[in-house]
Amino acid sequence: MADQEEDFSKLPFSDRFAHKNWKVRKEGYEDAAKAFEKTPDESDPIFKEFTFDSALWKGAVLDSNVAAQQEGVNALCAFLKYGGPQACTRSRNATITPLVEKGLPSVKVITKQSSLEALLLYVELDKADPILDDLLAGLSNKQPKIVASTLTALTALYHAYGVKIVEPKPALKSLPKVFGHADKNVRAEGSNLAVELYRWLREAMKPLFWEELKPVQQQDLEKLFEGVKSQPPPKQDRLQRSQQAAAAKQAATPKEELDDESQGVEEEEEVQAFDLAEPVDVLSKLPGNFQENMASAKWKDRKDALDALHEAANTPRIKDGHFDDTIAVLAKSMKDANVQVVITAAHCLDVLAKGLQRSFAKHRSRIMPPMLERLKDKKLADPLGSALDSVVASSGLSENMEDIVEFLKHKNPQVKAETLKLLIRSLRNTREAPSKEETKSIAGVATKLLTESTEATRNGGAEVLGTLMKIMGERAMAPYMDTVDNIRKDKIKEYYESAVVKAKDKPKPAPQPPKTVSASQKRPAAPGARKTAPGMKPPAKRPSTPQSEKPLTSPAPKAATGKSIPSKLSGLPKSGLAGPKSRLPGAGPVPSKLTSPRRTITPHSDEDLAPVPKLGRGLAGRPLGKPVAAATSSPPPTTHQAGPSAADIAKLEELRAEKDRLARSHEDLRADKQKLTSQIHELRNHNAQLIEDHTRDVLSIKAKETQLVRARSDAEAAESTVQRLQRENERLKRELNRAVRQSTGSPLSSATADDGMGIYRDSASSNGTRYNQHSGIERLNSSASNRRSNYLGSPSEEKENGVFTGGEKAQPPPSFREDVGSGGENVDEGGKPVENWRRATEVTNQLKARIEQMKAKQGLQRQR
What we know:
Layout: H1 2-5, H2 13-17, H3 22-37, H4 46-52, H5 55-61, H6 66-83, H7 85-103, H8 109-125, H9 129-138, H10 144-165, H11 169-179, H12 184-201, H13 206-209, H14 215-229, H15 241-252, H16 259-266, H17 273-276, H18 290-294, H19 299-313, H20 324-333, H21 339-356, H22 364-373, H23 381-395, H24 397-407, H25 413-429, H26 436-449, H27 455-472, H28 474-481, H29 486-498, H30 516-522, H31 525-530, H32 557-563, H33 625-633, H34 638-642, H35 646-744, H36 758-767, H37 777-791, E1 799-800, E2 803-804, H38 814-820, H39 837-863
């Protein structure tokens, strides 16, 4: 009973934490948590005992009683929450491993949640690296439930803090081992961790572990990744203490002073595969005969060497080394006559620039001009464009701006067009806004491209200006848009609205005007100087008040006279003594010219003005006793020292606001004027276009009318020609009929008299022979024989020795006399036959013999 009635609450926490009774330990944990919550700050003495003796927390986390363990983990969370960074760094070495082995896999849900909260607090208070090392060590535990709970804790850490706080590479390298685990719960938690990492890293995570997975595992993960691809980029859910302090500072800082900084905090760059990968030594993997093969005369050897380089360099991250010789070889390959060699060299440059990143910038000047020059070949536009994008991304747009602008003026249109596309892509992808000089250079060359002859180049120039305007802003691009006509301005505006860029110009804040309060605060120091004890040395020099810091109210005349003494002689006219004939009391006549020598006058404070002696005659020798006495006897006016009043400040602010309103109104009117002017120009251009179209239509109509008149005249001429030919044809028919009637005494048949050439058509159809280019004898023979048979006698008449004996001999027509040549020479005009028909027969036989010879000759030629 005595033990039960004993009050353990008076024992120190160290004794209660180590007590053999679990109830005492449990109550000790609860009391410690309540005591931590009541502490005013981290320096409370109650934290000292637990800070120096971290074994107390190890025992609390490893408590054998599950109820006491739950309260012990809760007490640890309260200790970390209120104890600060020192509580974190002193206790984590003793508590992380027990939390992984005993707290996370606990059977009680509250203990699991408290253990996970403790791990999150450790990361919140300091850094994640020590916590991550102990958690990854838990993945090698033999118990599957510990491995699964550790993976759950890792997923929670990445979900809360992201990959910027918690390093993702160790977890990614352990995923292949997790997916090969025999327990399905471990594999399921590994899939959850992979999906969480994919939310942050996307495709950049795959090079570290993807090749070590089985195809089935890759397919399963791809299905899980599909649900994440459509989600927006994740943000950090939980902030570290340092981030919380920075956020509180930002909340207390005025917004106008925080614009640039807040933008830099909000815009986080995506994690690239380069940041996660380990550097690879590419030079050691190159074959020993690489340089020899590149110098070979055979293009196949050169391509094989470049293929070997591409295979070795195709890695996310390359270790920097002596790549000068390799880059020189690739630059030389840009001039290779074989297209395949140039394409492979471009692929090598692409992977080298991506793998070296900033280390590739020192090789840029050697490789950039040859690549831009080779853009003249259309077949190489795509591989060279990809390589150029990588080079610009690795070295920055500013470093390559000079080469790009120079090649935009190239005489080859293909080079100019591809360089223009490169500039547009670079402006879209750059994260640093161009400087004012670079903006001027880009805008100048792009404005000139707007007047090119090819439409693609003009559109490219407009797109450059629109993209640059998206980065720099409309106000910064206004001076370059004044020389552009309205039609092109509309085109540039379209590209400006549709452009997607990553960089934004962050103009420096305008310098604030000097504060008048500081000047007015410095002035009251003068009366205090008069109260200094005697014997103290006055200051050697009195700081002069700037002109801009003078008060609004004008000072009294006496005070101004007293303050003009330490000034130079050139400042005397400002004191009201500018007239050359003005006389000072007690001074001699004023000379016409100031001939006194220049004296160095040391300014003194106001209390030293009284003992100043006379300086002599002239302007500088006026007596100073009276003004000084007045200055010393009467205190300085308060209006001169206190600065502007509240009413003056309010009036000044009102005037400034009115000035701003007038400036805005002026800007609006100016914008309206520009808009109306642009509309006038557009209407004028439209009117000119309509007039041009009308003139062109009128000219076209007149040309068509002229063509129609000419066609009509040609038709009339053709019609008259046809009529004349018809009349001639009729006349020839009549002449032929008359000649036939005279020769035969009877009209021709309808088959013969249809046209003037019917005799020849009948004779040709009956004999079947044609006149050829070799000789016209066949036609002559056939026509002559047929005409003899048709016109010289009837079929019953017989011929003896080539002479007709029976019947009356017929007179052959004139056409027959022309065909037989000399055979018709003996025919008189009356048509009576007086020729020798024997001679005609001989001529005919000779012609037939000639015809046979020619046929035989033609037959031999055909056989050959």
